[in-house]
Specification:
By secondary structure, the chain is α+β, with helices and mostly antiparallel strands. It contains three helices and ten strands, in the order βββββααβββββα. It has a domain of 140 residues: Thiol Ester Dehydrase, Chain A. The longest helix has 19 residues. The N terminus is likely disordered.
Length: 212
């Protein structure tokens, strides 16, 4: 993991902490800290003619564990890990051009059909977190991606989530092919992620060995 840290509460979704680069609206000026030095980064994201940059992996905006998400065991409840993962995916959909505006205009959206979450280390109220997303594959109607949830300051891994999502015609309630524009962006994202190693835990299934 890189030692870059973001000192801004809510940067733009395309922030790439791992690479020490960021894309933000001009009004939002993040400060990145690395090896004791601070660097202020300004980039223009209000220009609609710019194509999105696909970093490897995608790094979502920093988030924080809310007190209301803590269960009777005194740690983050399992359901809210999925809230954090889902918020990160929403940022990816915006980057791909299939976010809320796309859903409203085209009446197409994404349905998650399979998820495998691994809970690896507890999170507590107030903990800062960030999610990375790696696109493992896609076809005409499906997305296969892998998310990892990290403590945003200490960089240890808390949980992973492997997902399969379908592109759905909301009127017909059936799967539908991606439009060309989204396919093109998926191709660019997959190319950007092509050299990433397969994440540990990808493709894993739940099982108990005999005798254990």
């Amino acid at each position: 993991m890189s030692s870059w840290r973001v000192l801004m509460a809510r940067p733009h979704p395309t922030l790439n902490v791992a690479a020490g680069r960021a894309q933000v609206k001009p009004a939002e000026v993040p400060v990145l800290r690395h090896a004791g030095q601070s660097v202020t980064v300004k980039l223009m994201l209000d220009r609609l003619d710019l194509e999105p940059a696909f970093f490897a992996p995608f790094v979502a905006s920093p988030m924080r564990v809310e007190p209301g998400w803590i269960d009777y065991n005194g740690h983050l409840n399992t359901a809210y890990y999925n809230v954090l993962f889902d918020r990160a995916v929403d940022e990816v959909y915006e980057l791909l051009g299939c976010g809320l505006a796309y859903v409203a205009a085209s009446r197409h959206s994404f349905f998650t059909v399979e998820v495998h979450v691994r809970y690896l280390r507890e999170l507590n109220a107030g903990d800062p977190v960030r999610v990375t997303l790696q696109l493992l594959g896609f076809d005409a109607k499906r997305l296969h991606y892998f998310e990892q949830l990290f403590h945003a300051e200490e960089a240890w891994l808390s949980a992973t989530s492997e997902n399969m999502a379908l592109h759905v015609d909301m009127a017909a309630r059936k799967t539908a092919p991606f439009p060309d524009a989204i396919t093109t962006r998926l191709q660019r994202m997959k190319a950007a992620h092509a050299n990433l190693p397969v994440p540990q835990g990808a493709g894993r299934r739940i099982a108990m060995k005999a005798g254990q």
